[in-house]
Amino acid sequence: MKQTRTFVVHVEDQPGVLDRVASLFRRRSYNIDSLNVGRTHEEGISRMTIVCETDASVARRIEANLYRLVNVLRVDDITDSPRVERNLALIKVSAGPDVRPQVLQILSTVGARAVDLGPDSVVVEATGTHEEIERLAAVLAPFGILEMVQTGLVAMTRAAERPQLSRGEAA
């Protein structure tokens, strides 16, 4: 059964690595729903978050094929792991002086913020799940969305709970 799967791929920060990873998906006719790449805290290592819809058997093949690429250091399918995931969206909304207070009130209610104010528009910054971004866009649509862009998903497994120390143990 197909499901949306999330892969975290650590790669060497070298020219051409993104092309090789994307080409692997293209050659095997796997569609990428979301792709985000950025540097990590480790020098020379980048992290890709790749989201695609596939079944478990194809996911295992994707993972094995990614490991065959020279610059791939680690692949984790975090689909079934507890995780934190976020998208970033910038939304330019038509908002003249007459409706701007309404738009700003909506933003404060949902935790988004205005990052640019023009005479007749507001640029909104919002982070959240894909569904949260879509709900915000639906609420702002009646005002008139002039432009919208989203990053790809970034995801990280949740922090492990710290084990309870027994009495007398140092922290």
Low-confidence stretches: 162-171
Number of domains: 2
Q: What fraction strand?
A: 35-45%
What is the CATH superfamily label of the largest domain? Answer: ACT domain
Helix fraction, binned, reads 25-40%
DSSP E strands, number? 9
Helix and strand run: EHEEHEEHEEHEE
Mean pLDDT, nearest integer?
A: 91
- Text of the CATH class of the largest domain: Alpha Beta
Give the end-to-end Cα distance, rounded to a whole number of Å: 45 Å
Q: Give a quick account of the main beta sheet: strands, pairing sense, barrel closure.
A: 5 strands, antiparallel
In the CATH hierarchy, the third-tier topology of the largest domain is known as: Alpha-Beta Plaits
- In quaternary terms, these chains amount to single chain
Q: Helical stretch count?
A: 4
Q: Compute the CA-based radius of gyration.
A: 20 Å
Instruction: Tell me the CATH architecture of the largest domain.
Output: 2-Layer Sandwich
| SS-derived structural category | alpha+beta
* Overall outline: elongated
What structural keywords apply?
171 residues; Alpha-Beta Plaits; 2 domains; five-stranded antiparallel beta sheet; four-stranded antiparallel beta sheet; 9 strands; 40% strand; elongated
What does this protein structure show overall?
Strands 5, 6, 7, 8 and 9 form a five-stranded antiparallel beta sheet that branches. Strands 2-3-1-4 form a four-stranded antiparallel beta sheet, covered by helices on one side. The protein is built from four helices and nine strands; from the N terminus they run E-H-E-E-H-E-E-H-E-E-H-E-E. It has helices spanning 17-27, 56-68, 100-110, 130-140; strands at residues 3-12, 32-39, 45-54, 72-77, 83-94, 113-117, 121-128, 145-150, 154-157. With 171 residues, the protein is α+β, with helices and mostly antiparallel strands. It has two domains: 3-81, Alpha-Beta Plaits (2-Layer Sandwich), CATH 3.30.70; 84-156, ACT-like. Chain A, domain 2 (Alpha-Beta Plaits, 2-Layer Sandwich), CATH 3.30.70.1150.
